[in-house]
Amino acid sequence: MSVVSTAVTNTFAGGPLDRCSELRSNAEWLAEQRVAPQSRIVAYYRLEPLVTRGAGGIGWLSPDELAIYPEADLPRIFLGKDDAGVAHFAVDVSSIEDAPSQSPFRDVGRFMDLRAIALRLPVGDPSTLATGKAVLDWHARHQFCAVCGTQTEMRDGGYMRKCPNEDCNAEHFPRVDPVVIMLAVRGDEALIGRQAMFPAGMYSALAGFVEPGENIEEAVRREIMEEAGIKVGAVHYHSTQPWPWPSSLMIGCFADAESTDIVIDDELEDARWASRSLLTASYNGEQGTGIILPPPMAIAHTLMKAFIEQG
C-alpha cells in the first residue's frame, strides 16, 4: 500500500517566507527591520489576523502605520523574509482598546477567524498566518518561567522566552504538539468516526496526541485501539499539517487493520467501516450517503481523498 505523498501541501503548510532562523539572535538587525519602511507587519486581535476586505489576502501594515503605538506594548514576532529580502513580522494588538475600529486596522480590512477564511486566502497566506497565530498564542500562555515563576522576556525574534532570574536563566521555546490522525483500512473499507461536537452527519479520521516515549506508529496503534477497539499492524505515513489551535502538528497516516469488531470509547459518538464507494459518493456531494466528509481545509479530508483515489 503506497500512501506516502510528497506532492500534498495541506492547508497551513507551504509558507512562502524564508524563516531565516539564523537571524533571530541578531538583535541589531531585527531592530533595524522592525522600523524599516519596506518591512511588513500583520496584526492580530485576539488571535484573529487582519485581512483585506473580502478576505483577499493578508492585511499587511508598514512600520509607519503602527508608529502611533509604542513598540514596547506591541512586541513583534519575526516571521521571515520574502524573495525580495523584505522582513515580515506579526504583532498582537489585543491591548489596543477597540482595535478593530481604530486606524490603521479599519482602513486596511478586518480581523477575521483564520479557520473561517483559510480556504479563501491566496496560496501561502494561511501558512504565514498560522505561524503568527501559533507563536503569539504561545507567548500569551507562557508569560512566566515554568521553573521559578519569574516573568520571562521575549528573545530571538519571538522564538524564545528567557528567564531574567540569574539563579535560573531558563530558556523556553514555542512548543508544537504532535497529533496522529489516521484511517485504519481493511480492503475497500476505512474506519471513520464522529464526536458529538461534530456537525450532524460528519465523520472524520480518528486522531489523538502522541504521548511521551511513543513513536508515531505506536501512537497510531494505541489511539485506534483506545477509540474503536480495532487492532492494527503496519502504519503508513502520508503527510503532515500544521494546526494552530493552539499549536499542533497533525501527522497523517494509514494503518492496516487486523481486526474488524468496533468497540467505541467515550471520546466517540459513533464509529463505522465505510466503503470506498460510499466515501466517493459523499466526496462527490451525492445525496443520501448518510455521511459528510470533513472540509477540504482538514488533513482528514486529504486522507479520505487519498483513500478514494487508491481504488
Main beta-sheet annotation:
6 strands, mixed
Q: Which consecutive residue ranges, at least 5 long each, have pLDDT under 50? A: none
Estimated share of beta-strand residues: 25-35%
**CATH T-level topology of the largest domain:** Nucleoside Triphosphate Pyrophosphohydrolase
Using the 3D structure, state the CATH architecture of the largest domain. Answer: Alpha-Beta Complex
Q: In total, how many domains does the architecture comprise? A: 2
Q: How far from one another are the termini? A: 11 Å
The general outline is globular
CATH class of the largest domain: Alpha Beta
Radius of gyration computed on alpha carbons = 22 Å
Helix and strand pattern: HEEEEHEHHEEEEEEHEEEHH
Mind explaining what this structure looks like?
The chain has helices spanning 27-35, 105-108, 114-117, 125-141, 216-228, 276-283, 299-310, and strands at residues 40-45, 48-52, 76-81, 87-92, 109-111, 153-155, 160-162, 171-172, 177-186, 189-194, 206-209, 232-243, 248-257, 270-275. Helix 6 (276-283) packs across helix 7 (299-310). Strand 9 (177-186) and strand 10 form a beta hairpin. Strands 9, 10, 11, 12, 13 and 14 form a 6-stranded mixed sheet that branches. The chain has a 5-stranded mixed sheet with strand order 3-4-1-2-5, sandwiched between helices. With 311 residues, the protein is of the alpha+beta class. The chain is globular and about 60 Å long. 35% of the residues are buried. The longest helix has 17 residues, at 125-141. The protein folds into 2 domains: 21-141; 177-310, Nucleoside Triphosphate Pyrophosphohydrolase (Alpha-Beta Complex). It is built from 7 helices and 14 strands. The model has no long low-confidence stretch (mean pLDDT 95).
